[in-house]
Amino acid sequence: MTDRPSIIVAPSLLAADFSRLGEEIASIARAPWLHLDVMDGHFVPNISFGPPVIAALRKHTDAKFDVHLMIDPVDPYLEATAKAGADHITVHVENAPHLHRSLQTIRALGCRPGVAICPATPAVALSEVMDLVDIILVMTVNPGFGGQSFLDSQLSKIRTLAEMSRESGRDIILAVDGGIDPSTAPRVVEAGATMLVAGSAIFGKEDRDAAIRALEGPFVEQITG
After folding, report:
1. Measuring CA to CA, how many Å separate 22 from each of 54, 152, 163?
2. d(Cα 89, Cα 67) in Å, to the nearest integer?
3. Mean per-residue pLDDT, 145-168
4. How far apart are CA 205 and CA 225, in angstroms?
5. Would you state the pLDDT for residue 218?
6. Which string of DSSP letters, residue by residue, matches 81-95?
7. Annotated binding-site members for a divalent metal cation
8. I need a labelling partner for 83 at 20 to 30 A (CA). Which of 53, 65, 66, 145 fits?
9. Mean pLDDT of the chain
10. Is-cis flag, bond preceding 73, omega within 30?
11. How far is CA 157 from CA 26, 164, 175, in A?
12. What mean pLDDT comes out for the span 83-98?
């Protein structure tokens, strides 16, 4: 046993080959979660997919669907996302003007609510919703594209949010997304992260199982909740 927290590794489908998504999902069967980035070309400068694709993918895996909504407006699509098969729905503090209500709605739809925070937004922006979130997602790149370099400036924010999570007395998952690979993973875990979202570090490798193990590192005990 170890005194380090258990770590969730969630492969980001954004880095997969979209021409054969069923096969790509089968190649990451080791991972208990699948991270799905929904982008609209408005809130972020890219377009990915939406609820119909999520619903189609749901037939191919029992993995938890961790859906990250990078769209604006976001509230009108919460119900459709839940019905498509999402287990967790994360909205941005920057795109949810009534964040408290959005998080309540997500939970009422039967999903675990999460909130994401962009690099330029301070941790204090989440101080009034710590009692509502199950997942906090720290963006360590500017959202919108995969394959970007990790922003070291976000390590202090991870530490702050880890402390805020402990002070809340709740079991909040602290996730990190952006530039995660075997070199950056230990640093964010040391800062307090309990979940790693990785795209190219997994889907860019021929042996996806080995790539996931490399991110799990020697300090983790994988969880599936």
Report:
1. 12, 34, 39
2. 5
3. 93
4. 26
5. 57
6. HHHHT-SEEEEETTT
7. 35, 37, 68, 177
8. 145
9. 93
10. yes
11. 34, 10, 12
12. 97
**37 among known catalytic residues:** yes
Structure-token pair, residue 212: 């996931």
Q: How far is Cα 195 from Cα 198, in angstroms, rounded to an integer? A: 10
Alpha-carbon distance of 140 to 14, in angstroms, equals 16
Which tokens hold the place of 44?
């972020």
131 is catalytic: no
* Active-site annotation holder among 37, 66, 75, 134: 37
pLDDT (mean) for 19-43:
96
Tell me the C-alpha distance between 140 and 119, whole Å: 6
